[in-house]
Amino acid sequence: MSSPVPTPALLNRTPGERDATQPRETAKRQADPGRSHNCESRRGGTGSPASTSARLNRTRLAVLAAVLGIAATTAPTTALAQPIGQCTPPSETPVTTASWAQQRMAADRAWPLTRGDVIVGVVDTGVSATAPALSGAVLPGTDLQGGPGNGDCFGRGTFLASLIAARPSSDPHVPFTGVAPEAKIFPVRVSDDPPKIQDHAGLANSIAKGIKAAVDGGARVVAVGLVATLDMPDLRAAIAYASERDVLVIAPAAVPKKGQLAFPARIPGVLAVAPVGPEGPVQSPTYGADPAIAAPAQQLVGVAPQGAGHRLSSGNELAVAYVAGAAALVRAYHPALPAPEVAARLLNAADHPSTPLPNKVIGYGVVDPFAAVTTIPNTDPPATPVPEDLAVPKPAVPDPAPAARALWLAGSITAAALLLAGPVIAAAARRRREN
């Protein structure tokens, strides 16, 4: 049974969104002064009035869907804002049609050559190792507050990781797969609740620690899902650290408010990514860095930290996942290619706009994973053009003989004519005198 098309009202959500069903209440909330959130239970929860309300709400939604003729059993849950102190609920409903973004990327064309068997760091909210679509793909990683990073309360890090490296489903009717389905994810948890972050200087320093942790964890590509609006020396040092170790860092170019700056995207050496939607570039984008490349970021299908189903979400920061997945394919197929050349290959192989490059909205265009892997760059030096001989030859000295012959002939003909006509003229003159 095909999946109904979600309505725009359900799809056009803001970044940091969660599922349509009410989130579960966590089993308990442990006070932890080292965190700026109340999201304690990352891997489960117990029943509560909130969960009872959720069941009632789901029942009402199912009845409403039946009345409207909607196949509720095939529709993915849609992201909503996460209430404070609660984790993202499981997604149980699989999507049975490929999303527009997955079709647009068409990364499966590159899979006969490479499936991206490299480590990709995801610096965000952690990544759930229990998500079925990421089974076997998630390394322990690290939490900047201590412990591993392979759990995810908020859910965005898991969503990003699924776009990068989700494994193919055993169900042939479920087409969802990440761009690089053999990549390994090194998760770094910086925050469990990004919307609550107010200290952007502290965030910049935390992102710096996360990048270094991912590099030390063996990542060859690092996808940063967070945006700091302040530049800090530690962050620049972390980018230099990654560059020295041949690691490509990818980050969002968009910012929440006009006038803000986007870090680490503004730092040289970082690949800044712009968001696009099903109809093209997003309307009135707000950039804190000049975008180098673009990728899908709206109406995306991904996975939640728990559950075998899928969810829908939109967010400018999600675009980094597709570029990171494409970079993983390139790095796996061209292992000797240094990070700057990987970035250059992504830009040169992108689906370029018709405007001069880079375009101020989408940079060098929308990422094309297959072309990035297979394009053969022209490395031949430009040929030196052969100098043209522009000398005009002097005219030859004219030969007077033909002209002389022509004059002699003309004179001879004239003399002959006079000789022949002379007697006739003389006879005519005598007759006139006699008369």
Note down, in words, how this protein is organized.
- This is Subtilase family protein.
- One of its GO terms (molecular function) is serine-type endopeptidase activity.
- Keywords: Hydrolase, Membrane, Protease, Serine protease, Transmembrane, Transmembrane helix.
- Residues 15-43 have a biased composition (Basic and acidic residues).
- It holds the Pfam family Peptidase_S8.
- This protein is α/β, with parallel strands linked by helices.
- It has a domain at 100-374: Rossmann fold (3-Layer(aba) Sandwich), CATH 3.40.50.200.
- 31% of the residues lie in helices and 11% in strands.
- It is built from ten helices and 13 strands.
- It has helices at residues 8-11, 49-68, 100-105, 156-165, 200-216, 233-244, 319-333, 339-349, 369-374, 400-434, and strands at residues 17-18, 77-78, 80-81, 119-124, 142-143, 184-189, 221-224, 248-252, 270-277, 280-281, 293-296, 300-302, 311-313.
- Strands 4, 5, 6, 7, 8, 9, 10 and 11 form an eight-stranded mixed β-sheet that branches. The chain has a three-stranded mixed β-sheet with strand order 2-13-12, covered by helices on one side.
- The protein is rod-shaped.
- The relative contact order is 0.13.
- The model is unreliable at 1-38, 40-75 and 79-84 (pLDDT under 50).
